[in-house]
Specification:
Structural class: alpha/beta
Bound molecules: guanosine-5'-diphosphate, magnesium ion
CATH topology: Spore Coat Polysaccharide Biosynthesis Protein SpsA, Chain A
Strand content: 15-25%
CATH class: Alpha Beta
Shape: globular
Length: about 240
């Protein structure tokens, strides 16, 4: 299965090369990487460009003019990956929060589902022990809040470590997905589940980022909290396709 992992980056110069090397050392066949860089001031875009040469085109880069948010980076990245023939499309942070080695299990799981995800909220899944209690509680609450209001069976609705079948993404109205922050993950999972697609959750240990700063902000959290209530209205006419 031709697999492309989309990695959005904003100031990930230290993380990206290490992550890319780790990914290419995995026993996953036909793997390529698409970096979506928003003109990172620390030069991540050029580093990604150089890796494209180093890895003979297995790394490609979409350069965007400025910081336009995670959601739109993923949507554009997914579309390009599929145009280039990917049969499975992955998404992950560049910051080592998502354990790269679990991609092997996600690829296996995708044989019997439409989207496989690394989950912090299934048995065996875990949040970084170094996180203070309030941060763990916020993550747990945000996830509980969204999945309850939206009536979803998925345990980790806010998680961003996922592997999609291209056929799943192609059935989704990607152009109408406008969320950009955290809630992007929720919106994608919600739309896919309304369409009737099946998920599999693989437990992961979610580590805090290795280098650099989180782009999470209060504004993003408020956007998410409000938007959860809008999703059922926005997608009220969406019918099952599978
Ligand atoms: N292209 C792009 N990438 C972004 C943007 N915001 C965050 N990222 C990347 O998206 C991933 C997740 O962001 P991060 O700051 O780690 O968020 P956190 O994990 O919630 O703290 C990282 O790889 C970031 O570099 C953005 O506006 N554009
Ligand atoms: Mg992160």
């Amino acid at each position: 299965m031709k697999t492309t992992i989309v990695i959005p980056t904003f100031n990930e110069a230290k993380n990206l090369p290490v992550l890319v090397e780790k990914l290419f050392n995995l026993p996953v066949q036909d793997l390529s990487i698409l970096v979506v860089d928003d003109n990172s001031p620390d030069g991540t875009g050029q580093i990604a460009e150089d890796m494209g040469k180093q890895y003979n085109g297995r790394v490609s880069v979409l350069h965007r003019a400025g910081k336009m948010g995670l959601g739109s980076a993923y949507i554009q990245g997914f579309q390009i990956a599929m145009q280039n023939g990917a049969e499975a499309v992955g998404q992950m942070d560049a910051d080592f929060s998502h354990p790269a080695e679990k991609i092997v299990e996600l690829v296996q799981a995708l044989e019997s589902c439409d989207m496989a995800l690394g989950s912090r909220y299934v048995p065996g899944g875990k949040l970084d022990e170094r996180w203070p209690l309030w941060r763990k509680a916020l993550s747990g609450f945000g996830n509980f809040y969204a999945r309850t209001i939206l009536g979803m069976k998925l345990r980790d609705v806010t998680g961003g470590f996922r592997l999609w079948k291209s056929s799943t993404l192609k059935a989704m109205p990607l152009d109408s997905i406008r969320s950009n922050g955290y809630i992007f993950q929720v919106e994608m999972a919600y739309v896919a589940s309304k369409l009737g697609f099946q998920f599999k959750e693989i437990p992961i240990y979610f580590a805090d980022r290795r280098w650099g700063q989180s782009k999470m902000s209060l504004r993003i959290q408020i956007e998410a909290a409000i938007r959860v209530w809008q999703l059922p209205v926005m997608y009220r006419s969406l019918k099952k396709v599978v």
